[in-house]
Specification:
Distance between the termini: 64 Å
Structural class: alpha/beta
Strand content: 15-25%
CATH topology of one domain: Rossmann fold
Number of strands: 12
Number of helices: 14
Mean pLDDT: 94
Order of helices and strands: EEEHEHEHEHEHEHHEHEHHEHHEHH
Helix content: 25-40%
Shape: globular
CATH class of one domain: Alpha Beta
Length: about 425
């Protein structure tokens, strides 16, 4: 059995081809981002959806679609295979009969980042690496630390000064060496890391600078399409930080279409906070590259508070344009309302995750999503990692009572009337 059908990298900038067994991040010639290619013609001949039906439920059931060559190097905590949950509350509010939530808050470290780091750490292990570096606002650092330690790596995490204390503590709990990272713009971080690649040859795990992390996000397409009877949703809504999630998912849907496993692809919707939305601004202006925009300190959606995307966000914008999708910016008030709505669905989502539902609400009101369409909102992380945001979105109840039947009867009279 062929474990992987991956063949090579190509550079987005100069189209140069590189072998997969070389430990590189970006193109050594021009600094462009590298993309993994697969032998889809052979896959079409040798694979079918039936072959995947009996496999263990995890993202690794789709290993043929990833660049890892040898199963022995796989580092897994059971990531992927999260439920696609039909809406019972928000769908009625919005008049959508086929609204679903892909709940990655249930991942091993509580966020969708586990998909990417399971693959990236496994791939680095196969390359013979033993240590690595990433920066993080919280979720990525925790995931990187957990999977690194499972692999016997030495993880170093540069934690953004805006990260909440609980997320910082979780990163340290998983055994990473951490340093607080101060900056005025995301462009400073990107420049710093790109210089580290060029001058130190330091292998990194930052989305897109690392060429394989986003490949794991393709599993969104495989898992969702399989659950829907090998049909893609009409619309997929995804929060955007660096954008590895939406780019990977779009690539996965395109692969399935090329294989003939689905007959249509979804419109991809990218979501950012109103306070900092360079991708949304670029989309609204019809641009192919995004420039620095907004203030990352002015939103509760910390995990997606990026004021400048990596290499202008070209890949993210390409996914939105090519899919005939759109981008939405949402204010914090709408995000907090969406957190409450998701609570009524039984989902505890952090603000960045709830932003997907907030954006969908806006899109429905603007007539961009029809009532008969199948829509999937990705829930990227658990609200339990950002408890102060939950406290802010849901105030404490003023109701009180002493432990007596009479007071209980009065209370229920107020609550149930």
């Amino acid at each position: 059995m062929t474990w992987s059908y991956a063949t090579h990298y190509t550079c987005d900038g100069c189209s140069k081809v590189y072998e997969l067994n070389v430990p590189i991040n970006t193109c050594p010639d021009c600094g462009g981002l590298l993309e993994t290619h697969y032998d889809l013609d052979t896959m079409k001949q040798e694979l079918s959806p039936r072959q995947f039906a009996g496999r263990t439920t995890s993202m690794w059931r789709w290993h043929e679609f990833y660049p890892l060559r040898d199963e022995a190097h796989m580092v897994s905590l059971g990531e992927g295979g999260t439920p696609l949950i039909p809406s019972v509350y928000a769908g009625k509010k919005l008049g959508l009969s086929r609204l679903y939530f892909k709940n990655d808050a249930l991942m091993p470290t509580g966020s969708f980042k586990d998909r990417g780091f399971s693959l990236a750490i496994s791939f680095a292990k196969e390359l013979g690496l033993t240590r690595g570096l990433t920066y993080s606002s919280g979720n990525a650092g925790a995931s990187f630390a957990a999977y690194s330690r499972r692999a016997g790596f030495e993880p170093t995490v540069l934690v953004e000064y805006l990260a909440n204390p609980l997320k910082k503590a979780i990163i340290s709990l998983y055994g990473a060496k951490t340093a607080t990272l101060y900056f005025d713009s995301m462009t400073e971080i990107t420049d710093m890391l790109e210089q580290a690649v060029k001058r130190l040859g330091l292998y990194q795990f930052v989305n897109f600078i690392n060429p394989v992390r986003h490949e794991a996000m393709k599993a969104y397409a495989y898992e969702i399409s399989e659950t829907l009877g090998w049909k893609a949703p009409d619309v997929m809504v995804h929060p955007i930080g660096t954008g590895g999630g939406i780019w990977g998912a779009w690539k996965g849907f395109c692969e399935l279409a090329q294989l003939g496993w689905i007959d249509a692809v979804p419109r991809m919707v990218g979501v950012q906070p109103e306070a900092t939305g360079p991708i949304v601004r670029a989309f609204n202006q019809g641009l192919k590259q995004a420039e620095r925009h907004g203030d990352a300190t002015k939103t509760i959606a910390q995990s997606i508070a990026a004021d400048a995307p990596i290499q202008g966000g070209e890949r993210v914008l390409r996914a939105i344009y090519d899919s005939r999708g759109f981008a939405e910016a949402v204010p914090d008030e709408a995000i907090m309302q969406a957190m409450q709505w998701l609570g009524c669905e039984g989902i505890c989502a952090e603000p960045a995750s709830a932003a997907s539902l907030a954006a969908l609400k806006q899109a429905v009101e603007r007539g961009l999503v029809r009532s008969d369409e199948t829509v999937v909102c990705v829930i990227t992380g658990s609200g339990l990692k950002q408890p102060y945001a939950i406290e802010k979105s849901v105030p404490d109840s003023p109701l009180q009572l002493h432990a007596s039947y009479e007071e209980l009867e009065k209370l229920l009279g107020k609550v149930w009337q």
